[in-house]
Structure formats: C-alpha cells, structure tokens
C-alpha cells in the first residue's frame, strides 16, 4: 500500500487532512484490506478530534517502516470501532513508572479520565515471527533459492536472538560454502548454536520445498514467561496498567491460523506464568530484561503492576460471535481493574475473558 493512496482516502473523509512535509524514508508496505481501512479510519478519527499532528505522525511513521506504529493503529482502530473512549499518548510521570531516567514518557493510551487506566501496545510474536524474519533475510541473500526455517518453536525470543539471529553472517557463509562445494539440489543443516532448528534451501527451479515445525505450548509458555518484562520500565506503579498485544498473519502465522480455543489455551498458559510464577521471583531484576529500567526493581514487584494482558488478532475484521480477542486479568495485580471495566471494554464486545478467579495458586 502506498502512503499517498492512504492519505487520499483520509482526505475523502477529512478534506483538510495534510500529508507530512517530510518525504524521506517513505516506502510501500504490505497490508490487508482490513488494515488499510482501519488506518484510514484511525487517522480520520484523530484528525476530527483535534489530534491533527498525531494523525499525521502516525501515518508517516508507519510508512517509514515502523511496524510498532502499525499495530498501535490497529488497536486504536478496534477501540474506535467499539466506541470505547480513550485518550492517546498520556504523559506518565517518572515517579509512576520504572524508567531509570528522570524524564516522563508517553504511554499509548488511557481509559477513563476520572479513574485512569493506562495502556501500552506492543506487537506480539514469539518464535515463529523471528524464524520468518530469518527466512526473509536469507531469501534476500539467495534469491535463487526457496528457503525455509523449521524445527522447534518452543524457544524464547532471547534464545533466538542470541543463538540464531546474531549468527546470520555465519549462516550465510555456511549456505554459500555448500553451494560452492557443488551442492545444488537441497541444502539442509542446523546452525551449531541452535541445533533444534533446521534450515532447508531448495533451488527455485525445482519449484517445491517443505519443512516441519513443532510446538509444545507448555514449554513455550515456560521459556517465555519473562516476555512482558522487555518493556517493564513502562509499567505504571500507582495506576492500573494494561498491555495490548496485537498480532496478525505476518507476525505470528501459527496463532493467526489457529482455532480460537487453541489460541486461548496457549495464551492462558503464558499469562498464568506471568501472573502466578513471576510474583514469586524476588532474586531477579527487571533491568536484566529492559535496559531502560531502574536497578533494584524485582521481577516479583514489577509483575504485579500489570493489571491485564489483552491479545488481539488484527489480520481481518471479526464480528461479535467470532471476536479474536483474548483478555487475561491479573488476579495478583497491585492496581486491579474493576469487573465492570473488564466487562464493558472486552467481554461485552465479544472477547474471551479469563480472570483466573479459581486458579490462582
């Protein structure tokens, strides 16, 4: 999708809408019809609600390659579509978060002016996302080959970063060496730093390639129990705080293609680890996972600052009866949400909701 095309569509709704004066870095991006429509609706909404600069910057950042802003926009779009009022970009004072700098930061949004609930939006993808990124990288390096990365998906993001993505140059050299040694039909190998992953390269002239991946969701949940702490410096200390995790077919094809109940079970295992196990970890600190976090803040104390975690599939539009949203409420939160808030924002709009009421041990 082209930046100018989206801006033209916004102008049909808001004749006064202006494109950003800056043009450098703008590129085309791949969107589903639902995502491009949502982008237009969100920009138009902010433009007509006295947030003109924010609407401009949001579109510009997306078309300059900020995937984070794209998924932020998708969550805004869901909230707008369901008439859930919120304030974008509220200022969070330094004393109400775990950032080590003395400066404030701007969260992605806030519900309820009188009893504020802050939220941030972080694109979600563990394992499959990183392997797809590696596939794309390798196919750019070897365009004459079909390349697939398979094997186990029971990995943490940290494991993949250290054992696989940081070794891209070594992997490229291995493929190149095998090609130069005369292997033309099928190259199959596992990186020495990541033996449970298989990389398979087949010449495009052969037209067919396949690989197998496996996933044990209980092991996956255990290995990724610290996932949310990657941005723990932003957790609010004295205010209820929600993390939205949007994903789509591109970010996590496994979750996006899975049955609703299977997704709910997998994500429940992850959130149960976050809500029940992390509050017992007093001897590890969030600065280990987030370089922007203060020193001396334990995993146990920080984990209780998350009031709820909400996952949303933003590949396509979903009706009430097929809503692809899963909301998990932290029963051990220091700043819990009220039941009416959970029902009003999520359950009444079709989301799966689990508050672990009788499973908190």
What does this structure look like?
The chain is of the alpha/beta class. The protein folds into three domains: 3-65, no CATH class; 87-125 and 224-354, no CATH class; 128-214, no CATH class. 36% of the residues lie in helices and 15% in strands. It has twelve helices and 13 strands. It has helices spanning 3-13, 33-48, 52-63, 67-81, 128-141, 157-163, 168-180, 217-223, 253-257, 260-277, 299-303, 339-345, and strands at 87-88, 91-92, 105-106, 109-111, 117-121, 145-152, 187-189, 197-203, 213-214, 241-247, 308-313, 325-329, 352-354. The strands form three sheets. Strands 1-4-5-10-11-12-13 form a seven-stranded mixed sheet. It has a four-stranded mixed sheet with strand order 7-8-6-9, with helices on one face. Strands 2-3 form a two-stranded antiparallel sheet. α2 crosses α4 (67-81). The longest helix has 18 residues, at 260-277. The mean pLDDT is 91.
Summarize the structure.
The protein has 361 residues and is of the alpha/beta class. The protein has twelve helices and 13 strands.
Compute the CA-based radius of gyration: 22 Å
Which residues form runs of ≥5 with pLDDT under 50? Answer: none
- Count the E strands: 13
Strand share of the residues? 15-25%
- SSE order: HHHHEEEEEHEHHEEEHEHHHEEHE
Lateral arrangement of strands in the main beta sheet: 1-4-5-10-11-12-13
DSSP summary: helix tally: 12
Distance between the termini: 48 Å
Helix content: 25-40%
Task: Assign the structural class, choosing from mainly alpha, mainly beta, alpha/beta, alpha+beta, or little secondary structure.
Answer: alpha/beta
Arithmetic mean of pLDDT: 91
